[in-house]
Specification:
mainly beta; single chain; five-stranded antiparallel beta sheet; nine-stranded mixed beta sheet
């Protein structure tokens, strides 16, 4: 008789790739500016590492998106954009969406990933889409993000942090530097960053100072008009407990005749964010925010 074929134990099969698309399942988006939430979407059963994000969006309709993750299986079928932010993207500087591949031998980041499944902070996902529908009529949309997973747990587990100003208020007809003071409360390593602001913004970066106040090289200095995607640093940056960080966002409001405040609408509001893709240990707290005029040469 023929011997039955016995599957190998999962751990002996080698790592497997899995995919999931988290998206608006298909709906009409009314005219105007909207923040809409979709989900929850459960992670694939055998997924243990989240390694890739690829936005698949209507570039004329979606200004930005934020992906949230929560542990365990969904407890409700109702969408709720809460939990931890694990990914963010905006359309600035792109004609087609640019994604993120975290774990790659080519970039020296093999083994880096978000942990998924039992014992991790990720069991299901929700997606927040920021729509700006200027068509004057409802538009049908199915925008979302394709996620790729592996069955092998990551060697280094990641988290996503954000440094931000909550008090952006830019006077008319000035160049200005919005500065946010932060401190490292638990050390870790930064592997990537993402800057986010709107149309008045110029360079965004973070200055780092050691526990004695000595300046170290800045992190992620880049124009906010470049693609607002997560970028891997050329070399990982270690941040030690007790160090200070200063987030800077430069704005050119020289041609604006009214104050510009914080808000979602990229046409008339501004933001000041820098995200870190880091080891799961890193903790950063931000407090005082100071807006200081900056000479035009720095804009």
């Amino acid at each position: 008789p023929t011997r039955p074929c016995m599957p190998l134990p999962f751990s002996l099969r080698g790592h497997q790739s899995m995919n999931l698309t988290v998206l608006n399942p298909g709906s009409l988006v009314s005219p105007g500016v909207h923040l809409l939430c979709y989900g929850p979407y459960a992670a694939p059963r055998d997924a243990r590492a989240l390694v890739r994000f690829q936005p698949d969006v209507n570039m004329a309709l979606v200004h930005h998106l934020i992906m949230f993750a929560s542990p365990g299986a969904p407890t409700s079928s109702r969408a709720s954009c809460g939990g931890n932010i694990i990914y963010a993207w905006a359309r600035t500087g792109q004609t087609t969406p640019q994604g993120l591949e975290i774990s790659s031998a080519a970039t020296g980041t093999a083994g880096l990933a978000y942990g998924v499944g039992p014992g991790s902070d990720i069991g299901h996902f929700s997606l927040q889409l920021h729509y700006q529908n200027m068509e004057g009529k409802p538009v049908f949309d199915k925008s979302g993000v394709r996620l790729s997973f592996e069955s092998r747990p990551p060697k280094t587990r990641l988290r996503f942090d954000v440094l931000m100003s909550t008090r952006v208020n830019i006077p008319p007809a000035v160049f200005i530097d919005e500065c946010v003071a932060c401190r490292v409360t638990r050390g870790g390593t930064v592997f990537g960053f993402r800057n986010h602001a709107h149309r008045l913004a110029r360079d965004i970066w973070t200055d780092e100072f050691d526990a004695h106040g000595a300046a170290k090289p800045s992190i992620g200095r880049l124009s906010a008009q470049e693609p607002q995607i997560i970028r891997l640093l050329p070399k990982p940056r270690s941040l030690a407990e007790g160090e200070s960080l200063e987030l800077h966002c430069l704005y050119n409001a020289s041609g604006v005749d009214r104050p510009t405040r914080i808000g979602l609408d990229e046409r008339s509001k501004e933001m000041c964010n820098q995200y870190y893709l880091s080891t799961s240990a890193l903790r950063v707290e931000c407090d005082g925010e100071v807006a200081a005029p900056s000479p035009p040469a720095n804009a």
